[in-house]
Amino acid sequence: MESSHAENMMLRNNCGVSFLTFPSFSAFPFINHAFSTRVGGVSQAEFSSMNLSFGRGDAEENVMKNYRLFCNAAGFPFDSLTASAQDHHTVVRRVTKEDRGVGIYKPKDRASVDGLLTNEPGVTLVTYYADCVPLYFLDPVRRAIGLAHAGWRGTVAGMGQKMVEAMQREFGSDPRDLIAAVGPSIGPCCYEVDSPVADAFAAHPEWQPETLLKDCEAGKYMLDLWEANRRILCSAGVLPEHITVAKLCTRCHADWLYSHRASGGKRGGLAAFLCLKEDTICRT
Predict the structure, then answer these.
(1) Cβ 24 vs Cβ 274: under 8 Å
(2) Quick one: CA dihedral 219, 225, 230, 234, positive or negative?
(3) 79-112 pLDDT per residue, tens
(4) Burial of 4 (0-12, 13-18, 19+ CB in 10 A)
(5) Containing domain of residue 194, as a range?
(6) Exposure string (b/e) for 24-58, b if CB count within 10 Å is 16 or more?
(7) What is the pTM of this model?
(8) CATH code at 152?
(9) What are the tens digits of pLDDT across the range 147-175?
(10) How many domains does the chain have?
């Protein structure tokens, strides 16, 4: 396997499949994590090639094959996967081994889940992206993990804070112990929004929104979701030194990362993966 730096992540390749990892998470041997790229799958045309999203027009057998290829390359047991049911809200679900397969090889059983939590080894959390912000969470003390999807609606609704609060409630996590990461997503270089979106962020003076929004012409603004989520995590008690921001823009790199904006909606989907390893996998 070869690897190289991609902003604040590592770009890795195994068996022809490329994926990204955070060094801050890789430092903990009892977890596995990854963020997919477009490279290494079997899908064609606008879905080329590692499409991990169902329901966008790609053949389901292609998506399933892509999951198996990705899991083999990145080291996740296929039967451990548990997926979200994202709709740009802030519902957080704690999942267990009984939920393995949901949203992948079993039907979705809930209509709105943008955050997933677990403290059970052998359960791989999966969330989907194509410009929105992935948020990764690890409590190395309580050995609990979380993944969350935060578009602008989820961000302005405080998805990051809701995840921290859920980890406190479910596992007794201390926010100061948490390791967090803001994954690849559309960056402040490319994310143009209109006045209603800007106004939604301006309603949160505690985030210093004047520094998150760059005024453009005709009621348009450039919005920095990366920094917004970092500030939300800090306000929730996560230590600044425990937060990694990938600074990797999906639109700027739409040749190897799916971007909804860059493709006009004709695209596949990326996915974030995070699991606590089974004891047998942890042993060396």
Answers:
(1) no
(2) positive
(3) 999 999 999 999 999 999 999 999 999 999 999 9
(4) exposed
(5) 2-282
(6) bbeebeebbbbbbbbbbbbbeebbbbbbbbbebeb
(7) 0.96
(8) 3.60.140.10
(9) 999 999 999 999 999 999 999 999 999 99
(10) 1
